[in-house]
Amino acid sequence: MNGAQALIRTLVDAGVDTCFMNPGTSEMHFVAALDSVAEVRGVLALFEGVATGAADGYARMAGRPAATLLHLGPGLGNGLANLHNARKARTPVVNIVGDHATYHKRYDAQLESDIETVARNVSRFVRTSQRVEDLAGDAAEAIAAAAGPPGEVATLILPADVSWSDGASPAAVPALPGRRAVAADTVEVVAKALRSGEPAAILVGGSACRADALHAASRVAAATGAKLACETFPARLERGACVPEVERIAYLGEMAAAQLDGIRHLVVVDSKAPVSFFAYPGKPSDLVPDGCEVHVLAGHDEDAAGALAALADAVRAPAASAVVSDGSRPDRPTGALTAQALGAAIGALLPEGAIVSDEANTSGLFATAATAGAPRHDWLCLTGGAIGQGLPVAVGAAVACPDRRVLAFQADGSALYTFQALWTMAREGLDVTTVLLNNRSYAILNMELNRVGAETPGPKAKAMLDLTRPDMDFVALAAGLGVPASRATTADELVDQLGRSFATPGPSLVEAMIPSPW
Amino acid sequence: MNGAQALIRTLVDAGVDTCFMNPGTSEMHFVAALDSVAEVRGVLALFEGVATGAADGYARMAGRPAATLLHLGPGLGNGLANLHNARKARTPVVNIVGDHATYHKRYDAQLESDIETVARNVSRFVRTSQRVEDLAGDAAEAIAAAAGPPGEVATLILPADVSWSDGASPAAVPALPGRRAVAADTVEVVAKALRSGEPAAILVGGSACRADALHAASRVAAATGAKLACETFPARLERGACVPEVERIAYLGEMAAAQLDGIRHLVVVDSKAPVSFFAYPGKPSDLVPDGCEVHVLAGHDEDAAGALAALADAVRAPAASAVVSDGSRPDRPTGALTAQALGAAIGALLPEGAIVSDEANTSGLFATAATAGAPRHDWLCLTGGAIGQGLPVAVGAAVACPDRRVLAFQADGSALYTFQALWTMAREGLDVTTVLLNNRSYAILNMELNRVGAETPGPKAKAMLDLTRPDMDFVALAAGLGVPASRATTADELVDQLGRSFATPGPSLVEAMIPSPW
Questions:
Q1: Which of A12, A226, A353, B250 is 20 to 30 Å apart from B57, CA to CA?
Q2: What pLDDT band is residue B99 in, cutting at 50, 70 and 90?
Q3: Backbone angles phi, psi at A356, to 5 degrees
Q4: Does the distance separating the beta carbons of B74 and A78 come in below 8 Å?
C-alpha cells in the first residue's frame, strides 16, 4: 500500500470520505489512489478557492470534516481566502497540500516555495509528512486537530514521494473529545446577573446557533427579560418556523451600538463580545457599551447548548416558553424588482429544509426579516469577511445534504471571485439555486468610502468601485459553465423564475437586476 | 497630506505610476487619494490574482515596477499564485496590502489574520508601516527592494490608520544600483572552457533573453561551436525576425536530457542549471549531465549582456556573426484545426511588435517553432508554474505597451483560474487577442498521471482530469465579461477570426477547438 492509499483509507475510516480538489502533478498518486478506496468521493473544482469553500460548507452541514487537495504553495494561496473564512467559522477542514518530493525541494524548481509559512495564516496544526511510514499517523493527528472542539483548519503537507512510496498502512484516529461541560458555578454567576433586573443581552454564536440551543436561550430571554441576539455572521444559524427567531448584531457599528444600547450584562455563548468589522476614524472598535459587564457562559470548546439548558433551569424558565417563529410568509411580490421585493420573493418561496448560503451583502438585507417565518431552514454566513465564499459554500452544503435545496444568495461583486463554483454544481448535478443580485457596483465599498471619512471621491476613486464599463452578464457566465440561467427584471419574473428553479433538479441561476443604492 | 496621498506621490515620483488593484474598506483612503495625484493610473481587477499577474506583465514589458493594492490577508492569498510567478521571474513588484488600523488589530475582527506570514512566501522585503510619518520612507525602501537587481516582490503592509492619518510627506527613492559588471577573470575562465573543444552549451535566462544579449550569445556560439539554449520558461524572450533564435530547454526532463546530452561545459547566464520541473519516481531531479561542469558567467544581479559581449570578444567572435531568424513565416493553414494548424496560424499572422503571453501548455507546443520567423516580438512564459498567469500578464503587458498587440495564448484548464482578467481588458480597452485552446481536459495532468508512474487510472481518477461534464463555453464566458468572442472549429475559421481580432482595436477572444491528445 502506498502512502496515498493509506492516507485515503485513514481519512475514510475516520469519516472523512469527501475530498474537494484541484490537483496538479505532485498530487497524481493521491488522485490515482481514489479508485483504491470505494467509499471516497472526489469532487473536482476548477479553482482552489472553490475546493476550500466547499469543504467549509460541507462541514458546516455534515458536522464532520471534508478533505481538500491543493497543489503546492500557489494552490494553497488560491484556497487561502476561504480557509480564512473556515477558520473564523471554526469549521473542521483537513487541508491537504501536495508538495515536491522531499529530495526535490533543494533544487528550487519553478513551483518551489515555503508552503508552511502560508499555511500558518489559517492553521495551528501544520505538518509536513516526511516519511511514508509516518503519513497515516500524521493524517490521524491532522483529523483529530481539525475536529477539535472547536473545529479548525488542519494542514497536512504531502510530499510527492511520501505519497507514492510503498510501505504505508492506515492509522486509526483516537476517540475525539466532546465539548467540555460548563461548570455549574459559571451558570450560577450568569443566572445571578440575569436575575439582577439590570438590562441584559444573550449573544449566541457558533454551536449556540442551532435550534436546541436557541430554544433554551429563548426560554432564558423570556424568563428574564434579556434580549436575545446572535453574532453578525454565524457559520450556521437554524431558523424558520418553530425555531426561536434571533436578531443578528448588525454589520454597521452604529446600528450594533443601537442594538446594545443600555445593556449592563452581556452573556456571550460560543461567541465573542462584538467588535467593529473595520476601524473607522473617530469610531470605537469595541462595541460593548460602557459600563456593560461581559459574562462568558460557554467558550468555543464548551457545550453551549447544555449550558443554555442549565441556565434556563437556573432562571426557572418554563419548559415551553421559547418564542418561536409563527411560520407566516410574505405575499409574493409584484411590480418593480427592488431589494425589498427580492427579500419577499425568497420569503414567499423558500422550500422546507432549504440551506441558504448568504453572500448577498448590501442588497440582501431585507431577506433576513422576510424569511423569518419561512419553513425551517439553515442560514450560512460570511464568517471571515473574505468575499468569494458564497458559491463554494453552496457547493459543499449541497454535497453534504443531497436531499435539500440550497439557495446561493449571492452579490455580483463577490460572485466573481469564485464563479468557477458553478461548473462543479453542474458536474455534480447539485440542487443549488443561485440568486445573483446584480446591482452593478461594489455597493458596500461606495458606502464604506463615505463611512471611513474619505474626502469627496473623485472620478478615479469612483471608477474603482463601479462594476459597469462593461456590464457583466451573469446569464452568459452561467451558461459558459454549464448552468442554465435566466434574468429577472421585475418582481413577477423573479417569483416565476425562482419558483421554477426551486422545483427543478440540478443547479440553475436567476440574475436579479436590482437598482444600486449608490 | 495624509499617508495615502504621500504614498502615491512617492510611488509616482519613483516612476511607479500604475496600480493594479482590488481594494476593500481598509484601502478606501488609498482609493480616494488616487484623485490627488494626477499621474497615477488605477486599474481595477475583479480578482486579486488578476491584479498581481498584471503587475508582473506590466513590469516585464515596462522595465519598471507597478504597484498592486490588495485587501488584507485573504486578498494577498488570492494574489499569491501570480506573485509566486513574479518572484520566479524576478519581476519588480511593489505589493501593497491594506490592513486593519493598528489599534484595531487586537480586537481580532473577522478579517484579522497574520498578513506577514503569507507575504514571506513571495517577499524577502516585508514591512508593516506603523506610523504615518514613516510611511513614505517605508515605501521608498520597498520600491528600492523591488527594483533590485534582481527584481523582487516587495510587500508593504498598510494599516488603515497609517493611510488615513495626516502628517505625511513624500520620500525620494535613492539612486538604484545598476547590475554589477562581471569580473574579467570570470569571462576569461568561461572563454577558456569554450575554447577547450569539448562539447559546450550556453544557457541564457532572465536579462540575457533580450535581443542584445542574444546577439552576443549567438556570436559566441557561432565562434566556439557551443550550443545556445535558454531556460524553459523565460520571463521575457525577445525573438522573431533579425533576432537570434534560441532553443528553450524542454519542460519534460527526458527531452531536456536529450538536449544536453554529451555537454561537458554548461555556461549559465542569468539563469540556473536546469532541474526537473517535478520529481518523478526513478528519474533525476538534476538535469545537468554527469561529468558536465557548470560555469556561472553572470548571476541574477549581474550585467549579463555586458558579460556576453565581453565573452564574444574574448573568443574573437566576428561582430556580425550572430545567426538570426530569417523572417520566414508558415503558410496560413487550412482544413482541420489541430495543434499544428494553430501554431501555423499564429506564425502566419502574428503582428509586428506583438507580445505573446504564453500559457498554452500542452496544445501550444507547435507555436514556438511556427513563430520563430515572425516579425519581431516578445514571448512571456509561465515562470513559476502557477497556472492562471496568462490572461493577467496579458493585461499588464497591454497597459505597459498600448501601441502593441498582445496575444494571450491560453489553455482552457488554466484560463479558469483568472478568467476575470477579460473584464479588465474590456474596461481598459486593451488590444489583447485571446486565443483560447479548448481541448476539454487538464491534458497535461493526463500526461503527468502516466509519467509519475501512477497505476492505471480508474474512473474516479480520470474524472478529476477531464473538463467535460459540462463542457465549458468560452465564447459565452467572454461575452459575460464584455469581451466579443467567436469559436473556430477549422483552421480556416481560425485564420479568419484571428486576423480579424488582430486588426480590431480592443480585446477579443477566439475559442480554438483542439482535439485533446488524451
A1: B250
A2: very high
A3: -105, 120
A4: no
What is the 8-class DSSP label of residue B387?
Answer: S
**Closest partner residue to A35 among B233, B458, B482, by Cβ?**
B458
Same-domain check for residues B146 and B13:
yes
Are residues A287 and A386 located together in one domain of the fold?
A: no
Q: Of A369, A372, A517, A341, which Cα lies nearest the Cα of A435?
A: A341
Residue A444 confidence (pLDDT): 76
User: What is the interface pTM, i.e. ipTM, of the complex?
Assistant: 0.97
Q: Do B101 and A279 touch (CB under 8 A)?
A: yes
Residue B284's Cα: distance from chain center in Å? 27
In which domain, by residue range, is A474 found? 339-513
E strands, B349-471, are 355-359, 377-380, 406-411, 432-438
A175 falls within a domain: no
Grid coordinates of B366: 507547435
Q: What is the C-alpha separation between A169 and A139, in angstroms, rounded?
A: 11
B427, three cell numbers: 474596461
Residue with cell 429544509: A353
Nearest C-alpha of chain A: how many angstroms from B254?
Answer: 16
Residues B108 and B158 in one domain: yes
| B384 touching chain A per CB within 8 A | yes
Same domain, B276 and B344: no
Same domain assignment for residues A112 and A188:
no
Q: What does each of the 518 residues of chain A score in pLDDT, given as a tens digit?
A: 999 999 999 999 999 999 999 999 999 999 999 999 999 999 999 999 999 999 999 999 999 999 999 999 999 999 999 999 999 999 999 999 999 999 999 999 999 999 999 999 999 999 999 999 999 999 999 999 999 999 999 999 999 999 999 999 999 998 888 999 999 999 999 999 999 999 999 999 999 999 999 999 999 999 999 999 999 999 999 999 999 999 999 999 999 999 999 999 999 999 999 999 999 999 999 999 999 999 999 999 999 999 999 999 999 999 989 999 888 999 999 999 999 999 999 999 999 999 999 999 776 778 999 999 999 999 999 999 999 999 999 999 999 999 999 999 999 999 999 999 999 999 999 999 999 999 887 777 778 887 777 667 899 999 998 888 899 999 999 999 999 999 999 999 999 999 999 999 999 999 999 887 65
Render pLDDT for A28-41 as a digit per residue (tens, 0 to 9): 999 999 999 999 99
Provide the CATH number for the domain around residue B127: 3.40.50.970
The alpha helices in B416-485, defined as continuous H runs, are 421-428, 443-451, 459-463, 474-480
Answer yes or no: is A457 within a domain: yes
Q: Which of residues 208-247 of A touch B (CB under 8 A)?
A: 232-233
**Domain harbouring A252, CATH code:** 3.40.50.1220
> Is the domain of A208 the same as that of A126?
no
Which contiguous run of DSSP H or E holds residue B486?
strand B485-488
Q: Smallest Cα–Cα separation from A276: which of A293, A294, A288?
A: A288
Q: Which of A28, A81, A88 sits opposite B445 (nearest CB)?
A: A28
User: Which among B87, B113, B160 has the least Cβ separation from residue A121?
Assistant: B113
- Distance from the Cα of residue B394 to its chain's centroid: 9
Last residue of a domain, one of B164, B197, B231: B164
Q: Are residues B148 and B195 in the same domain?
A: no
- pLDDT surpasses 90 at B386: yes
Instruction: Assess if residue B178 is contained within a domain.
Output: no
What gap in Å lies between CA B431 and CA B394, rounded to an integer?
10
Q: How far apart are CA A483 and CA A501, in angstroms?
A: 11
B457 touches chain A (CB under 8 A): yes
Whether B35 and B122 map to the same domain: the answer is: yes
Tell me, yes or no, whether A303 lies in a domain: yes
The DSSP secondary structure of A367-416, one letter per residue, reads: HHHHTTTSSSEEEE--TT--SS-HHHHHHHHHHH-TTS-EEEEEEHHHHT
